[in-house]
Specification:
The complex is a heterodimer of chains A (about 270) and B (about 280). By secondary structure, chain A is mostly helical. Chain A contains twelve helices and two strands. Chain A has two domains: about 200 residues, no CATH class; about 70 residues, no CATH class. In chain A, helix 5 runs antiparallel to helix 6 and helix 6 packs parallel to helix 9. Chain B folds into two domains: about 210 residues, no CATH class; about 60 residues, no CATH class. The chains are: A mainly alpha (about 270), B mainly alpha (about 280).
Chain lengths: ~270, ~280
């Protein structure tokens, strides 16, 4: 048994990274989400270390089939940490077998939060805004810019997160949820909040057709808004939606229905 | 139902699979959902499929505006962006090539048919999960591969490519009829809704990033810089980065202490600065 107890090679590590990278959402359901991508990415690992110990292999596969959900690109840092732990376990180190389970359960929430706000809240909308600007008039430069830039950024984030997670191992937890990490993520979060504010101003469109009496003449209410508080109607719709999500705990589908009703009523009454 | 629609409709269906959130072909979400799944890119690809790249991109651009704040967290999503993009842009390219039509069709498809298909699939895939669980219990490595990757990808392909192919291949006449007979109120409502829908995605983003009420001041700062001062997204990012960096500096633990010791240690610098001032 001892002759197989060598560490993971670079190639095998890259294999674990790539198997997760390609298939993280392959079999996603509401019940398990990304769970089975873990078991799938540990197939070569299981063959390498546990081919002569079926009971240990079974424990590995079962503990790597549990419910899991995070932002899958930044979340690769967890895959890196767990790879270093599983390696220790396979080599007979003193890491308990519950450790990978606990690490996954503890870190997936915080990383989903920071990852979603960085990827979906900052990087994707910014690149899309630039790409849309370049695409005006139907130019291919716009979509090509977006394709190339995200094709570089997304996998790079994924690769760096995995390898740093593996290198730091258990110490990476400090990097993710330690005091210093909290300052960095808080600062990134503020960047995200400001960008979202800009998105609200730039990407929601709603104007009113109402006219209000100004002295003797009717004048456009929208012109009044534009000169005093531009984009006030989009801002109201955004704040209303936010209120429905965070205070009323309404589902996205219900809010879509509310927005549709508001639009329809507004059109019928001639407001919008 | 002309035959020259066959190949473009087929290609659009295949693109819809490649860009789907659960597609595994293009490095997961990185190349699938986040690249091929975006309407801006869909416009280019569908444009190529239909042999009119410029019209495709213009449709993609218009649809992307509506879905810029599409969001998927924990499997929940505010609209099925891939069905919306490929169904809407594909149908528009098969008919009038009008960006406004592409937007209307995308919203209709993304908010109804798309979400229904997506939610149904998300519920039904427990079937594959259960089989993968059993495979793990039995050390069946080939079974894990089969029930996590091969089987689900085949059903994903069927669920994405076939409906989109059928919708484009047979929906053309229906769309032509709809466009002529749909009441003005409905088209007006959909066009207003297209402007308002991004508010939901943005609100979902706010729900992630705004963890305490005090952060609203940064949200309004970003809003005002764009709405009042008319800054572009790139300009806003630089200012936001500055603000974020200042916050990072200001939250340094023991900041007051550091400042104090710095004063004591660098008295020469202070004198130098004073000299410079006077």
């Amino acid at each position: 048994m001892s002759q197989t107890k060598e560490r993971l090679t670079k190639k095998e590590l890259r294999q674990i990274w790539a198997r997760w990278g390609f298939t993280h959402l392959s079999s996603m359901s509401y019940e398990k989400l990304q769970a089975h991508a873990w078991a799938y990415s540990y197939i070569p690992f299981a063959k390498k270390y546990y081919s002569d110990d079926p009971e240990a292999m079974r424990r590995l596969l079962v503990r790597q089939s549990m419910f899991y959900n995070t932002e899958p690109q930044t979340g690769q840092i967890i895959n890196g940490i767990v790879a270093s732990l599983e390696e220790e376990i396979a080599m007979g180190g003193d890491v308990p077998e519950e450790m990978p389970i606990n690490i996954k359960a503890t870190l997936m929430g915080p990383l989903a939060g920071i990852g979603d706000s960085i990827i979906q809240g900052i990087i994707v909308p910014i690149l899309l805004s630039i790409g849309m600007g370049l695409a005006s008039g139907g130019s291919v430069v716009g979509p090509l810019f977006y394709i190339v830039s995200y094709a570089l950024i997304g996998p790079t984030i994924s690769y760096l997160c995995f390898h740093n997670g593996y290198k730091l191992g258990i110490n990476a937890i400090d990097v993710i949820i330690g005091e210093n990490a909290k300052r960095i993520t808080d600062a990134f979060n503020i960047l995200g909040v400001m960008v979202v504010g800009g998105l609200a101003a730039g990407n929601v469109a709603l104007t009113t057709k109402l006219e209000i009496p100004m002295g003797d003449e009717l004048s456009s209410l929208q012109a009044l808004f534009d000169s005093n508080f531009p984009k006030i109607l989009p801002l109201i719709m955004v704040l209303l939606s936010w209120w429905m999500i965070s205070k009323k705990r309404m589902s996205a589908t219900k809010i879509i229905i509310v927005l549709t009703v508001i639009s329809a009523v507004g059109v019928v009454l001639g407001v919008f | 139902m002309e035959m020259d629609l066959l190949i473009p409709a087929l290609l659009t269906g295949i693109f819809c699979y490649l860009g789907a959130i659960e597609s595994a072909c293009l490095f997961g979400m990185s190349g699938g959902f986040y690249i091929v799944g975006r309407p801006l890119v869909a416009g280019l690809l569908v444009g190529v499929a239909f042999g009119d790249v410029q019209a495709g991109i213009l449709c993609g651009l218009a649809v992307q505006g509506v879905f810029i704040a599409n969001l998927s967290t924990g499997g929940a999503t505010n609209s099925e962006i891939t069905y919306a993009a490929y169904g809407g842009i594909g149908l528009a390219m098969a008919t009038s090539k009008d960006p406004a039509i592409a937007v209307t069709l995308s919203i209709l498809i993304g908010q109804t048919f798309g979400l229904i298909f997506y939610n149904t699939r998300m519920a039904l895939y427990s079937f594959w999960n259960r089989r993968a669980d059993i495979a793990a219990e039995q050390n069946d490595l080939a079974g894990i591969r089969m029930n996590h990757l091969v089987g689900p990808q085949i059903t994903n392909f069927l669920l994405r490519a076939i409906p989109i192919f059928l919708v484009i291949f047979f929906g053309k006449d229906l769309v032509d009829w709809l466009l002529q007979n749909i009441p003005q109120v409905v088209t007006d409502t959909i066009s207003v809704l297209g402007g308002v829908l991004p508010a939901l995605g943005i609100a979902m983003l706010m729900n992630i990033v705004i963890k305490e009420k005090s952060l609203f001041i940064f949200f309004f700062a970003g809003f005002v810089l764009t709405a009042f001062a008319g800054l572009s997204m790139i300009a806003l990012v630089f200012i936001a980065a500055l603000v974020a960096y200042l916050v990072f500096l200001a939250t340094k633990p023991g900041l007051a202490l550091v400042a104090e010791s710095a004063n004591q240690n660098t008295s020469e610098d202070v004198i130098f600065e004073d000299d410079y001032l006077f």
